[in-house]
Design brief:
Radius of gyration: 47 Å
Family: Belongs to the nucleoporin interacting component (NIC) family.
GO molecular function: structural constituent of nuclear pore
Number of strands: 6
Helix content: 55-70%
Protein name: Nuclear pore protein
Strand content: under 5%
Keywords: Membrane, mRNA transport, Nuclear pore complex, Nucleus, Protein transport, Translocation, Transport
Shape: elongated
Distance between the termini: 90 Å
Oligomer: single chain
Largest sheet: 2 strands, antiparallel
Subcellular location: Nucleus, Nuclear pore complex
Length: 830
């Protein structure tokens, strides 16, 4: 037991001795760890043994960042927090009993959720706008391509030798126009019309103007087309908010239908008259002039063999119902009434019905009479062997509106007239199951029958007539525009309807030529009038830009998909395509005044048009053309801004004849001289940058020509660079105010200046003595004033050292080889 106590006592004494040895007065940290802590520390050290390389890297990183004042542990902790926050994931829930922690957690979760949702919405909105912009650009390109394809055809090669430009002495590269005589005649009328509109007052009738063109063509179909258009446009206007409401109103539908009936009746009367006077012997024309005798004579030709069975008698040996029908077909109800009165005892109640029909304003029986005549038709007349009797009853009482009556109405015009007379408009027509409305008839012709039924491409004028007389103006124009030979007529028919506000236009200028919007009732369609005009002008805008400009003026009230004025946009595209800047927009004289161009005739905002064209030109990267246009628009600040951008790209290049730099320099000097004479200026910053770039061009001209003395003098006078070490700090501070155009040229300026100093240094060193003759003679400031060769060399070295210091201190990332070359030349001077 004593041995054990003595053993522990020795151990305690040794421990105290060790403790005393540690307390030597030195400030060393005391290590107090138990065995478990020592074990854990040993395990940690053992686990870190293989990571010596990583630990070395961490140490180096700590040293590097520590020298800059960064604590790597704190930075790492912050980065971890940021990395966690970037995920915007909800935080982990905590114990329900910790109310303060729970509320804090919920608040942070709400903030993170809001940030995440905002980020998601931002990305979605950005992507949506990106694709919308891409689709808009693609639609514009598609429109240009389609317009170019449609605008090219065989007629492009048919240059008339005897036609003159009736509007202007338009000059073009071929020396002749791409328009034929018909197109030129129409274009002349458009020019006259625009001129009248610009002058103000009452607008002339486009129908009359275009009809006069048709009368000179000796083409009966074209003349008849414009006669048809005249009838369909002579309708009373209805005060409504939009053409769509006008087209769907009962008043306008009745007016269009009545005008179509009158046209078909007058046309048929001309046909009957021509037939009778072409066959006078067979017609046996005689008696009192009038429709009755004309129809009687016509029937002598049309019905040479009398019908074996005549219902309800005859008049002068001709069928009663045939006479009545043809008088109605010619539009003379009075003549038909006279026939009815002459044999009234044979027709029963029909005379009463017809009188009411004739005396009504809209050729419509009352509800009771119409019900009675329809009942009578179903009971007996429907089974009659006389087709004329059946058709007269159907016309008077609107019976059997879907019947064809092909025995009588054997031609398309007869069929149209018959159906138009049977159309129903009033609300009380709903009591009748058999009724035909105008929209139903339009759908029947456009969709059920269609182009194939009417053999449209072989008979374009006939199908155009079918659509036009049923108030389907947009479909009629679009159909004719697809046929090259009649496209110009379709375009000018569209001009008439557009100027009268009859056309239904799409809400988007990039829509198809014929489109339909979801809110439109069937079968109405919308015509992209702007696209039609641009398709038409594409053919000749390159050779006849002034004529194309006249058509574009008609689009002045329309907007593009981006909300811009369509006339201005078309003018901009026309100018860029033809590059006829002076002819279309005018040109500047030597005194700074603008000579008017073609657009000045429209008395519009010429300044705004020119600026738009200049902006579009700038957007396409044609900066030199944009400078000319902005100069034309007197936007001096923009002129200098674009000049600065171009000059900065070539300022350091050597000047060679006919080069881009030479051309830009001449342009800049001419503008600078003119602006000086006119006291025209842009903003102070832009103007100062412009003149600084001109001075830099002078500096580089001297440098490339080897005139180092002049170049050195110019760069010193510009005070861009420090030429003394004491001025470096001031120039570094001033560098932040240098314009970007000068900053981009700074590497070349530094290299050229250092090269000049190096050249002068070599020159001085090679002279040998101050009394040397040229080319060793120099006129440097130190060499000339002090007369000391060494002093001049030291001055050059000082300037080079200042440039090197300045290049290393400015906050600008120069090309990698620039600093190397600067240092190399500076070293060669030591």
């Amino acid at each position: 037991m004593m041995d054990v106590d003595s053993g522990f006592g020795d151990l305690l004494q040794q421990a105290q001795q060790l403790t005393a040895d540690m307390d030597t007065g030195m400030e060393l940290p005391r290590v107090e760890r138990n065995l478990q802590q020592l074990k854990e520390a040993a395990q940690r050290m053992a686990s870190r043994v293989p990571l010596v390389a990583q630990e070395t890297t961490d140490v180096k990183a700590s040293l590097l960042l520590g020298s800059r004042g960064y604590d790597i542990r704190r930075v790492a902790h912050k980065l971890e927090e940021l990395s966690t926050a970037k995920t915007f994931e909800p935080l982990e829930p905590i114990r329900d009993t910790d109310i303060q922690g729970f509320l804090k957690n919920e608040r942070e979760n709400a903030l993170l959720a809001a940030i995440e949702q905002t980020r998601k919405n931002t990305f979605e909105e950005t992507e949506r706008r990106h694709w919308a912009d891409m689709e808009s650009e693609w639609e514009q390109e598609k429109q240009k391509i389609l317009t170019a394809l449609v605008g090219t055809g065989q007629d492009m090669l048919d240059f008339p030798h005897d036609s003159q430009n009736l509007l202007t002495d338009t000059m073009n590269m071929q020396g002749r126009t791409a328009m034929d005589s018909v197109e030129m005649a129409y274009a002349k009328q458009v020019y006259i019309y625009n001129d009248k509109v610009v002058q103000g007052g009452i607008k002339p009738s486009l129908v009359d103007m275009f009809s006069s063109v048709a009368s000179t063509m000796e083409d009966k179909k074209v003349a008849e087309l414009w006669n048809m258009v005249r009838h369909m446009t002579e309708v009373p206007t209805v005060k409504v908010s939009s053409p769509l409401k006008a087209r769907t109103s009962v008043e306008m539908q009745k007016a269009y239908t009545r005008q179509a009936q009158r046209y078909l009746e007058q046309s048929y009367l001309k046909y009957v008259t021509l037939m009778v006077y072409s066959n006078l012997q067979q017609a046996q024309l005689g008696g009192v002039p009038g429709t009755y005798n004309l129809v009687r004579s016509f029937l002598n030709i049309r019905l040479p063999v009398m019908m074996q069975e005549l219902e309800d008698g005859d008049v002068e040996g001709l069928p009663i119902w045939a006479l009545i029908y043809y008088c109605m077909r010619c539009g003379d109800l009075s003549a038909a009434w006279d026939i009815i009165c002459s044999v009234d005892q044979n027709l029963g109640d029909f005379g009463r019905f017809f009188k009411e029909y004739m005396e009504s304003d809209d050729r419509r029986l009352g509800a009771n009479s119409e019900r009675d005549i329809r009942l009578q038709y179903r009971r007996s007349v429907r089974n009659s062997t006389d087709p004329y009797k059946r058709v007269v009853y159907c016309l008077t009482g609107k019976c059997d509106p879907r019947g064809n009556h092909s025995e009588v109405a054997d031609k398309t015009e007869d069929y149209l007239w018959l159906k138009l007379c049977q159309l129903s408009f009033q609300d009380e027509d709903a009591m009748f199951q058999e009724r035909l409305t105008l929209p139903q008839f339009q759908t029947m012709l456009l969709e059920e029958h269609g182009e194939s039924h009417f053999n449209a491409y072989q008979q374009p004028f006939l199908y155009f007539e079918v659509l036009l007389l049923t108030a389907q103006f947009e479909a009629a124009i679009e159909f004719m525009s697809r046929i090259e030979s009649v496209r110009c007529h379709a375009v000018h028919v569209a001009l008439v309807f557009y100027e009268l506000h009859f056309l239904l236009l799409p809400s988007n200028s990039h829509s198809k030529l014929l489109s339909r919007e979801s809110s439109d009732p069937e079968p109405l369609r919308r015509l992209n009038f702007a696209r039609l005009v641009m398709m038409y002008t594409r053919k000749f805008e390159a050779t006849d830009p002034r004529e194309a400009l006249q058509y574009f003026h008609l689009l002045r009230d329309l907007k593009t998909a981006q909300g811009d004025n369509l006339f201005m946009s078309c003018v901009s595209e026309l100018v860029l395509e033809t590059r006829e800047f002076d002819m279309l927009l005018g040109q500047l004289g030597k005194d700074g005044s603008r000579k008017p161009g073609a657009i000045d005739k429209f008395n519009g905002d010429t300044q705004k048009i020119i600026e738009l064209v200049a902006s579009d030109t700038e957007g396409k990267g044609l900066l030199e053309d944009a400078i000319t246009l902005y100069d034309l628009a007197k936007n001096h600040d923009k002129v200098l801004e674009l000049l600065n951008k171009l000059l900065s790209q070539v300022v350091s290049q050597p000047s060679t004849p006919q080069s881009t730099r030479d051309r830009l320099k001449q342009l800049a000097l001419a503008i600078a001289e003119r602006y000086r004479q006119l006291a025209a200026r842009g903003s102070q910053h832009t103007t100062e940058t412009f003149h600084l770039l001109l001075d830099l061009m002078t500096f580089f001209d001297h440098y490339h020509l080897g005139r180092t003395e002049e170049a050195h003098k110019v760069i010193q006078e510009l005070r861009l660079l420090p030429f003394a070490v004491s001025a470096v700090e001031q120039k570094v501070k001033a560098f932040r105010f240098y314009p970007d155009e000068v900053r981009r040229s700074l590497p070349d300026i530094l290299l050229a200046t250092m090269s000049i100093l190096h050249t002068q240094y070599k020159h001085v060193r090679s002279c040998g003595s101050l009394s040397a003759q040229p080319p060793c003679s120099l006129s440097g400031p130190s060499f000339r004033e002090d007369g000391g060769r060494q002093q001049y060399i030291d001055d050059l070295r000082s300037q080079a050292r200042a440039l090197i210091t300045f290049a290393g201190m400015i906050p600008y990332r120069m090309p990698s080889d620039t600093n190397a070359r600067l240092v190399q030349m500076e070293v060669l001077m030591n």
